[in-house]
Design a protein that fits this description.
Structural class: mainly alpha
Strand content: under 5%
Helix content: over 70%
Shape: globular
Radius of gyration: 21 Å
Number of helices: 16
Order of helices and strands: HHHHHHHHHHHHHHHH
Length: 338
C-alpha cells in the first residue's frame, strides 16, 4: 500500500478541519433548542423562522456553493407545500413525517427536471428560467382549482399527529419542535455534504467552471445533483408550512416569496450554511417588530437596513465580534496546531 503524498495529506487535513464543529456552533444549537422552553409564547413566529431558515438553506446550497442564481426558488417551495397538503387532505399519506419526505421528493423531481434548463446560458438566462418556472406553476395551480383550491387556497386540510403521538396545536408548540428538529437534521446532512469532496468540488465550480472542467470535475452532473438537493430542501420547507398551518395557497409560488428569500441571504450571507439561518432569524424579528411599530411603512425600514448593509458592508458591521471570535478560537482545544 503506497504512502499518501504530502498534497493528499494536506487535502485530507483540510477536509477534516472543515468538518470539525466550532464551539460557537454548539452554542447556537443549544440556544435554538433552549428556545423551546424559555420562549413558549413565541413558538408561532419561531415556527415561521424555522421553515424560512430551511428554505434559505436550500437556496444557499445552490447559490452560495454552486453559484446558481435563481429568482424562482419558490417553485420548489410551492410544490412541496401543495404536495404535503394534498397528501393529507385526501388521506394518501397521513403521517406528517412520511408526507414531508414525499413532498421533498416531489420537489426534488421538479428540481431534477428543470436543472437541465438551468445549465444552459449565463446568469441572466438562469434568472429568467427559474422565474418562468415558478410563474408557470402558479398559473397551473390557479387553473386547476378543482385540485388546488385556486385563488381560495386548499382548505379542509386535516393533519394527523406527528408519528401518531404529537398533535399540532393552535399555539404552535408541537409544530415548532417538529420544524426545529427537521431543520437540525437536514442541516446536519447539508453540513456533512458540503464538508465532503463533493462540496469542495462545488466551490471549485463556482470559482471557475472552465478550470474545474479542465481538471476532470464533472461540472454538469454536480450542478444537476446540487440543484436537485436544493429542490428537495425547499420542498420540505414548503411541506412544513402546509403542515403547521393546515393550509396552502397560490402565495407559496409568488415572486415576493423568492424575493424575501434573497433578502434573507443578503442579511445572513451566502457560502456558509448558517447564513440562511441567521438571516431568517434577523429578517423575521425585524419584520415582526417593525410591523408593530410602523404597520404601514415597515417595508421601508427593512429596505433601509438592507441599503445600509450594502453601503457599509457586512464585514465592517461585524467587526465588533472579532475579539469574541478570536477568544473562542483560542479556547477551542479541538483545533490542531498549524
Amino acid at each position: 500500500m503506497t504512502e499518501p503524498t504530502p498534497t493528499a495529506k494536506l487535502a485530507t487535513q483540510g477536509i477534516l478541519a472543515r468538518a470539525r464543529w466550532h464551539p460557537l456552533e454548539f452554542v447556537f444549537w443549544i440556544v435554538a433548542f433552549g428556545s423551546i422552553w424559555f420562549a413558549p409564547n413565541k413558538h408561532l413566529i419561531l415556527t415561521e423562522i424555522a421553515w424560512l431558515a430551511l428554505f434559505a438553506l436550500s437556496l444557499d446550497l445552490i447559490l452560495g456553493y454552486a453559484g446558481i442564481l435563481s429568482l424562482g426558488h419558490a417553485a420548489f417551495f410551492g410544490v412541496g407545500s401543495y404536495a404535503a397538503a394534498l397528501l393529507a387532505k385526501h388521506g394518501i399519506v397521513t403521517e406528517p413525517v412520511l408526507a414531508l419526505f414525499c413532498a421533498g421528493l416531489v420537489a426534488a423531481v421538479l428540481g431534477f427536471a428543470t436543472s437541465f434548463l438551468m445549465l444552459r446560458g449565463a446568469d441572466l438566462t438562469r434568472l429568467m428560467v427559474s422565474l418562468g418556472v415558478a410563474l408557470v406553476l402558479r398559473e397551473l395551480a390557479n387553473q386547476f382549482g378543482w385540485l388546488t383550491g385556486g385563488a381560495d387556497g386548499l382548505q379542509g386540510v386535516t393533519m394527523e399527529p406527528i408519528l401518531g403521538l404529537f398533535r399540532f396545536d393552535m399555539f404552535g408548540h408541537n409544530g415548532y419542535v417538529y420544524c426545529l428538529v427537521v431543520l437540525f437534521v437536514l442541516f446536519l446532512a447539508a453540513r456533512r455534504l458540503m464538508a465532503s469532496p463533493f462540496g469542495l468540488s462545488l466551490l471549485a465550480i463556482k470559482g471557475n467552471p472552465l478550470r474545474a472542467r479542465a481538471i476532470g470535475i464533472g461540472v454538469d452532473m454536480r450542478l444537476v445533483a446540487i440543484y436537485t438537493i436544493g429542490g428537495f430542501y425547499a420542498g420540505v420547507a414548503g411541506g412544513l408550512l402546509a403542515q403547521t398551518t393546515a393550509f396552502s395557497s397560490l402565495d407559496v409560488f409568488s415572486f415576493d416569496r423568492s424575493a424575501d428569500l434573497l433578502l434573507v441571504l443578503i442579511i445572513g450571507g451566502t457560502g456558509y450554511l448558517y447564513g440562511g439561518i441567521i438571516g431568517a432569524v434577523i429578517f423575521k424579528i425585524m419584520q415582526d417588530y417593525l410591523a408593530l411599530w410602523s404597520p404601514q411603512y415597515w417595508p421601508f425600514w427593512i429596505g433601509l437596513v438592507l441599503v445600509v448593509m450594502v453601503l457599509v458592508g457586512r464585514d465592517r458591521m461585524t467587526r465588533w465580534s472579532e475579539p469574541l471570535r478570536a477568544l473562542v478560537n483560542r479556547l477551542d482545544w479541538r483545533r490542531t496546531p498549524s
